[in-house]
Write a structure and sequence with these properties.
By secondary structure, the chain is mainly α. It folds into 2 domains: 2-51, no CATH class; 79-217, no CATH class. 47% of the residues lie in helices and 3% in strands. It has helices at residues 2-5, 27-43, 79-101, 116-129, 149-167, 177-187, 189-203, 210-217, and strands at 9-12, 48-51. Helix 4 crosses helix 5 (149-167), helix 4 (116-129) packs across helix 7 (189-203) and helix 7 (189-203) runs antiparallel to helix 8. The longest helix is centred in the middle third of the chain and has 23 residues, at 79-101. The protein is globular, with a radius of gyration of 19 Å.
C-alpha cells in the first residue's frame, strides 16, 4: 500500500495488523518506534519507505492456539446457508464480548449491529455470482462505501464479528493476528467465502481498483497459497 501511494515518508514495521507500535505494555519499545518514525522528518529528502529493524517481543501470545468454540459440522445447502449457520453459532459469544466491553467495532460497512445476518447473506451472494462492481441488492443496509471498495469493509465487519466471538473464549492465552487468520481461512465458511469473492475481483478486469481491493480483502499468504496483492499495484489517478 505504501509503495502504491508513495507517501513523503513511511516506516514499515514488522508487527501484526492492529499493533503499529509493536509490543504490548512496553512503553519504551513503543516510544522507540515513534522516535524512528519522527526521525524520518530529518533524514528523508525524497519519498522514502524505511524498514523498522527490530521485531516486537511476543507477550502472552500462543503459537499453538486452537479455536475453543465448537462450530459443529457444516450445514448442507448453499454457501449462504452454511455461512448463516456458522454466524448463528458464533452469535452468543460475540454478544457476550459486546456486553462485557459495552461497545463493538462492527459497522464500518454501514450495517447496524443487528444486521450481521444480512451482511453475511450479501457477501455469500457476491461470492456465488462473482458480481463485485454493482452495489449489493440489499435495501435494508445504508452502505457507507461504493463497490468494489465496499467489499473490504464488509469483510472487515464480518471478521470483527468473528474476532469478538473469539474474545469471549475461556482461558488466558489469546490468539495472535496470524493464529486468527489461520483459523478464519483454514477452518471457517467465512474464509471460504472471502476467497471466492477474491476470485471475482480477479476476474473483474474492467475495474482498475479490483486487484487492490483483493489485496486488502485477504491477508498475506492466504489467497490460494500466495499473495492476494498484484505484483505491480498502482492507484487510479481519476
Amino acid at each position: 500500500m505504501s509503495e502504491a501511494v508513495v507517501p513523503p515518508r513511511a516506516l514499515w514495521v514488522p508487527f501484526p495488523l492492529g499493533r503499529p507500535l509493536g509490543a504490548i505494555n512496553d512503553p519504551e519499545f513503543q516510544k522507540d518506534v515513534l522516535r524512528t518514525a519522527f526521525g524520518l522528518l530529518d533524514t528523508a529528502v525524497e519519498p522514502t519507505i524505511e524498514d523498522y529493524q527490530i521485531e516486537a517481543p511476543d507477550k502472552g501470545l500462543s503459537d499453538n492456539w486452537v479455536c475453543p468454540l465448537n462450530l459443529g459440522p457444516e450445514s448442507s445447502g448453499s454457501l449462504a446457508d452454511r455461512l448463516l449457520s456458522e454466524v448463528g453459532r458464533l452469535r452468543p459469544w460475540a454478544m457476550e464480548t459486546r456486553r462485557e466491553r459495552g461497545r463493538t467495532l462492527f459497522g464500518v460497512s454501514g450495517a447496524r449491529e443487528d444486521q450481521v445476518d444480512q451482511l453475511a447473506q450479501t457477501l455469500a451472494a457476491i461470492a456465488e455470482t462473482g458480481e463485485v462492481t454493482c452495489e449489493p441488492a440489499n435495501e435494508e443496509i445504508d452502505w457507507a462505501f461504493d463497490m468494489p471498495l465496499l467489499l473490504r469493509h464488509i469483510a472487515d465487519d464480518l471478521r470483527t464479528y468473528y474476532h469478538e466471538a473469539i474474545a469471549a473464549q475461556p482461558g488466558t492465552s489469546p490468539p495472535d493476528h496470524d493464529a486468527l487468520n489461520r483459523w478464519i481461512f483454514g477452518e471457517t465458511i467465512l474464509g471460504e467465502t472471502l476467497v471466492l469473492v477474491a476470485d471475482g475481483l480477479t476476474r473483474a478486469s474492467d475495474s482498475p481498483i479490483a486487484p487492490l481491493v483483493r489485496g486488502l480483502l485477504i491477508p498475506e499468504g492466504h489467497y490460494r497459497g500466495g499473495s492476494a496483492f498484484p505484483e505491480t499495484a498502482s492507484f487510479p489517478t481519476s
